[in-house]
């Protein structure tokens, strides 16, 4: 297991390095949109460019870039997004709380709902409760999240007036006004997660409920509810818990489209703004942020199987022949 962990971490570092190199080269080949700056900022911008090697060969620029990252975690400066010449890391840290707020609230709501309705669907398999839940699963897995985000915004926000159309700005995250303004993006992010969790739990629990040891548990005097919760539900969580762990990791990644629709001042909305406004330093920093999240989630997703079920060993040798 230890060997496998180091192997996966090494491959993740190599993958991140390749992706970062490709992004850096492609971005530096694009024209810089900041060509004319007047006033006191002109000299500051020129100093910044020279410090980052903008007039040097590409290999020198990349060396300066890597040096700044590894020595001071400095990803550059903002040009068209955020405050002019503001450090990128400082700007992105200010955007992260809004993304965390919306996604954490979404997980707190969606994971319990997915578990509850998944268990109900498995217990009442092929009955009307199961059929109704299956309709919900098919609808919210098939339809993209931005479609029902727009429907929520139109019907709940505009027609009924139950919630604001967009999320309010500010840092008062523990107030009712902030939560009220974030209800619709939270719901929009929750529907697909609830549907996916329900589908997995229903499939795993339905298979577990028909196993032989469940019949033995019933013959020992346990009620159906006791046998389901003590044995079937716990065993069915082995292949499901890794997906919950991945959901937690992806909390900080945000949602590009949802944040844009509801004007959530988070990482996702900033990423789209960096693309449309051609702020290449912000774009590169957020791109690597997403790459790091994806690689970390993949490693933890695989390792969690061995942690949850010790019988599973990742990357082990082949079974010895008898």
What does this structure look like?
Helix 7 crosses helix 9. The two termini are 23 Å apart. 71% of the residues lie in helices and 0% in strands. 25% of the residues are buried. It has 13 helices and no strands. It is mainly α. The C terminus is likely disordered.
Radius of gyration using CA atoms only:
25 Å
Low-confidence stretches: 317-322
Task: Compute the number of helices.
Answer: 13
Major sheet attributes: none
What order do the helices and strands come in, and which of them pair?
Blueprint: H1 2-28, H2 41-51, H3 58-72, H4 88-123, H5 128-142, H6 145-159, H7 176-209, H8 212-219, H9 224-236, H10 241-249, H11 256-261, H12 267-276, H13 280-308
Observed structural traits:
322 residues; mainly alpha; 13 helices
Task: Summarize, please.
The protein has 322 residues and is an all-alpha fold. Helix content is 71%, strand content 0%.
């Amino acid at each position: 297991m230890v060997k496998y962990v180091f192997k996966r971490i090494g491959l993740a570092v190599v993958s991140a390095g390749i992706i970062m190199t490709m992004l850096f080269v492609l971005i530096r080949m694009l024209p810089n949109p900041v060509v004319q700056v007047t006033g006191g900022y002109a000299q500051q911008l020129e100093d910044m460019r020279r410090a980052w090697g903008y007039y040097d060969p590409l290999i020198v620029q990349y060396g300066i870039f890597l040096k700044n990252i590894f020595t001071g975690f400095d990803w550059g400066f903002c040009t068209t997004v955020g405050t002019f010449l503001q450090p990128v890391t400082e700007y992105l840290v200010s955007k992260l709380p809004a993304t965390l707020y919306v996604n954490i609230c979404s997980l707190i709501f969606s994971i319990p709902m997915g578990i509850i309705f998944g268990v109900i669907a498995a217990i009442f398999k092929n009955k009307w409760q199961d059929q109704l839940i299956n309709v919900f699963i098919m609808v919210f897995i098939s339809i993209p999240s931005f479609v029902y985000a727009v429907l929520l915004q139109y019907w709940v926000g505009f027609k009924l007036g139950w919630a604001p159309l967009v999320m309010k700005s500010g840092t008062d995250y523990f107030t009712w006004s902030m939560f009220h303004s974030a209800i619709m993006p939270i719901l929009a992010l929750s529907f697909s997660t609830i549907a996916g969790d329900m589908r997995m739990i229903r499939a795993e629990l339905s298979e577990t409920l028909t196993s032989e040891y469940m019949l033995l548990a019933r013959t020992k005097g346990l009620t159906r509810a006791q046998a389901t919760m003590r044995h079937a539900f716990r065993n069915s969580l082995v292949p499901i818990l890794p997906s919950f762990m991945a959901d937690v990791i992806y909390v900080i990644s945000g949602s590009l489209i949802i944040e844009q629709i509801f004007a959530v001042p988070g990482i996702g909305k900033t990423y789209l703004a960096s693309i449309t406004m051609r702020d290449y330093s912000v774009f590169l920093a957020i791109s690597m942020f997403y790459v790091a999240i994806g690689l970390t989630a993949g490693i933890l997703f695989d390792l969690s199987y061995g942690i949850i079920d010790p019988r599973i060993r990742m990357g082990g040798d082949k079974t010895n022949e008898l």
